[in-house]
């Protein structure tokens, strides 16, 4: 004996049947039968229309739950394009800061010559000093090279762009190593990032979940601590302020560098932000009438802190992106 359905329930099922006209007859009957069983289990057996609507929903809205949806194509940018974008713009920003500092830095009362950056060229001021004797102030146009190179992979995402990147990074490396003098020091952080822009996509795309291992992070932390320590030691020469004004930021950068192997995103962001603050504080300390600081040293320490922090954040973003993409399949 078939179970009895009240008129309200029969009307509800009829409206639902008409709303399911996009389904085949077999599918429609299956949905109707399932709904009928639900109605029979309801308090009152579906005698009141308002109870049916409250508990099951309107027939049209219930029918929409069974609509077929064609799968949409998932558009995902390539891994190299993703890495290029997250690397390029911060590098471009640092390159612009370097450009402005080189062009508009306050006059320096203390010189960097003779402090160890002209050893390859054989002179205290290196080949940049010799080049300056030939072309004069036009030497400052070198500061435009990193800004242009940082955007090359966005303009030329092909083999030609890669070749230009490699050549540019090699040129900037030669300037930093053999250039000598204050000018070469300013270019060290942005040159490190330009080299990373070339080689990071190659290293990170070895596997879908590739990211820097503990050895990479420990080496980066040790290198950063050495650079910060060296820059702090050299920066004390001619500095008229209290030594703690240099020691405190250096200690902060060192502590944040020690946190690199733990892969804490906030620590990596803090390292990059602290590097920018050290660069800004160094600029203020180098202004005439302040502490007589040599801007190149806080620029080197802070810039390297920003570079390492930015690369650590970028590596974390790549790993998170890869993890989410793999979860879709």
Identify low-pLDDT runs: 109-124
What series of H and E elements makes up the topology? HHHHHHHHHHHHH
The number of distinct helices, counting runs of at least 4 residues, comes to: 13
Shape: elongated
Question: What is the CA-CA span between the terminal residues?
Answer: 48 Å
Structural class: mainly alpha
**Number of distinct beta strands:** 0
Q: Please state the average pLDDT score.
A: 79
Helix content: 55-70%
Q: What is the percentage of strand-forming residues?
A: under 5%
Main β sheet profile: none
**Overall structural domain count:** 2
Radius of gyration based on Cα positions: 32 Å
Write structural notes for this entry.
With 329 residues, the protein is an all-alpha fold. The protein folds into two domains: 7-64; 80-327, no CATH class. The chain has helices spanning 7-19, 25-41, 49-56, 59-64, 79-104, 126-135, 144-155, 159-178, 181-204, 214-235, 244-258, 265-285, 296-327. Helix 5 packs antiparallel against helix 13 and helix 10 (214-235) packs antiparallel against helix 11. The radius of gyration is 32 Å and the shape is elongated. The two termini are 48 Å apart. Mean pLDDT is 79; it is low at 109-124.
């Amino acid at each position: 004996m078939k179970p009895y359905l009240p008129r309200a329930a029969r009307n509800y099922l009829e409206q639902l049947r008409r709303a399911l006209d996009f389904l085949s007859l077999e599918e429609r009957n299956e949905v109707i039968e399932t709904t009928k069983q639900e109605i029979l289990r309801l308090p009152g057996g579906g005698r009141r229309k308002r109870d049916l609507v409250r508990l099951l929903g309107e027939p049209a809205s219930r029918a929409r739950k069974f609509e077929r949806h064609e799968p949409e194509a998932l558009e995902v940018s390539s891994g190299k394009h993703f890495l290029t974008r997250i690397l390029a713009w911060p590098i471009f920003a640092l390159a612009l800061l370097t450009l402005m500092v080189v062009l508009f830095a306050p006059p320096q009362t203390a010189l960097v010559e003779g402090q160890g950056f002209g050893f390859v060229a054989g002179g205290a001021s290196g080949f940049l000093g010799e080049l300056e004797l030939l072309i004069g102030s036009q030497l400052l146009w070198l500061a435009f090279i990193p800004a242009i190179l940082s955007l090359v992979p966005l303009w030329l995402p092909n083999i030609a762009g890669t070749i230009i990147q490699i050549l540019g990074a090699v040129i900037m490396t030669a300037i930093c190593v053999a250039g000598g003098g204050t000018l070469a020091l300013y270019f060290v952080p942005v040159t490190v990032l330009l080299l990373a822009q070339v080689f990071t996509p190659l290293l990170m795309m070895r596997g879908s979940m590739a990211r820097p291992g503990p050895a990479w992070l420990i080496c980066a932390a040790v290198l950063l601590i050495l650079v910060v320590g060296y820059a702090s030691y050299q920066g004390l020469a001619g500095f008229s302020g209290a030594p703690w004004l240099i020691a405190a930021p250096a200690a902060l950068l060192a502590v944040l560098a020690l946190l690199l192997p733990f892969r804490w995103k906030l620590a990596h962001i803090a390292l990059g932000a602290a590097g920018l603050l050290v660069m800004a504080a160094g600029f203020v300390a180098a202004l005439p009438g302040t502490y007589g600081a040599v801007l190149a040293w806080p620029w080197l320490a802070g810039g390297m802190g920003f570079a390492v922090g930015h690369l650590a954040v970028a590596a974390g973003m790549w790993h998170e992106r890869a993890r989410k993409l793999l979860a879709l399949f």
